[in-house]
Design a protein that fits this description.
By secondary structure, the protein is α/β, with parallel strands linked by helices. The chain has five helices and 14 strands. The protein is globular and about 45 Å long.
Length: about 270
C-alpha cells in the first residue's frame, strides 16, 4: 500500500553530523528514505520465542544495508519481548550491526519490562533530530520519569520552522481523543501503557503548525495492521507487525516538498 501525501522525505548520502541547540543535526543528499517499523518482536501469541526482531522482517531489514536510498530506521516500540536481561538486546545489536545504519527507538512497554535496562543501554528515552530542513521527534509515551525533560525538548525544537515534522511514539495515543474516538476499539490499551500525558502536550502544539506533521505509532494491539487518518496539518499513521495478516513496515521518502509513505506487507498481500 502506498500513501502519496503532500510532502516528501529521502536520505541518500550522509554529509555531516553536528550538534545544534543540543539536538543532533544530520544532512543527507536528497531524495532520502527511512524505515519505520512497529511491534518489532512480532506476535505475542507466537509459540516460538524469538530473541531477535520478527524473522520475516529481519530478512528484508538486513538486506537494506545494500540499499543506498535507505539512510536510517526508526523502531516504534516493542523491539524486545523483555523476558530476559541482556540476551535480547545483545541479539538486536547484532542485527543493527548487519543493517549498518543508524536505528532510533521510540520505546514501547516491553522495553521497560526489565527495569532500568533501556536507560542503561541508551541513556535517555527520547531523541530530537534535525535532518536537512526537517524535524524528527522520537518520543517515549510509556514512562513518566523524563516527561519534563522530553516536553522541554519538544517545545525548544518547535520554536523553529521546518519543511516537515515527523513524530514517533509507541501507542496510538490519538485513539482516545474524542476527535478520533471511532478508532478506540482497533488498538491496544493506551492508558495502561501510557505513563505520560504526551498526546495532551503534543496536539495543541502540532495541530497549529504550518508544516505538514506526520505522526507514527507502532502498537495497534494486534487488531489491525495499518491505520491512516488525515487530520491536516497532522497525518496519523499506525503501522506494525504482530504476526497477523498484513503485518507491515513503512518506507518514507522525502524529496524536497514531497513526502511519500509506502507500506510493505510482509506476507505479500500489498506493498
Amino acid at each position: 500500500m502506498r500513501f502519496s501525501l503532500s510532502t516528501c522525505i529521502c536520505f541518500v548520502a550522509l554529509i555531516v553530523v553536528a550538534q545544534a541547540q543540543g539536538f543532533q543535526t544530520i544532512s543527507y543528499s536528497e531524495p532520502y528514505t527511512f524505515v519505520v517499523a512497529g511491534h518489532v518482536y512480532g506476535s505475542p501469541r507466537e509459540k516460538e520465542i524469538f530473541l531477535d526482531v520478527y524473522p520475516p522482517f529481519r530478512k528484508e531489514f538486513v538486506a537494506m544495508k545494500d540499499d543506498e536510498s535507505v539512510q536510517f530506521a526508526v523502531f516504534t516500540g516493542d523491539v524486545v519481548r523483555g523476558k530476559s536481561r541482556g540476551i535480547e538486546w545483545d541479539t538486536i545489536a547484532k542485527t543493527e550491526a548487519e543493517f549498518n545504519k543508524p536505528i532510533y527507538i521510540a520505546p514501547g512497554n516491553h522495553e521497560f519490562y526489565v527495569k532500568g535496562e533501556f536507560k542503561e543501554r541508551f541513556g535517555k528515552t527520547h531523541d530530537v533530530l534535525h535532518v536537512n530542513d526537517d524535524l524528527f521527534l522520537i518520543l517515549n509515551n510509556i514512562t513518566a520519569e523524563e516527561d519534563d525533560d522530553q516536553f522541554q525538548s519538544i517545545k525548544e525544537a518547535l520554536e523553529e520552522e521546518y519543511r516537515h515534522i515527523f513524530v514517533f511514539f509507541h501507542n496510538m495515543l490519538w485513539s482516545y481523543d474524542s476527535e478520533f474516538s471511532f478508532l478506540k476499539y482497533w488498538i491496544n490499551h493506551t492508558r495502561g501503557g501510557d505513563g505520560s500525558d504526551l498526546w495532551k502536550q503534543l496536539k495543541p502544539l502540532l495541530s497549529k503548525r504550518v508544516e505538514a506533521v506526520y505522526i507514527f505509532a507502532g502498537d495497534l494491539g494486534c487488531k489491525m495492521p495499518l491505520v491512516y487518518t488525515p487530520a491536516p496539518p497532522m497525518y496519523l499513521i499506525g503501522s506494525g507487525m504482530c504476526g497477523s495478516a498484513g503485518s507491515n513496515y513503512l518506507k518514507v521518502t522525502i524529496d524536497g516538498d514531497n513526502v511519500e509513505v509506502y507500506s510493505h506487507a510482509l506476507d505479500g498481500t500489498y506493498g
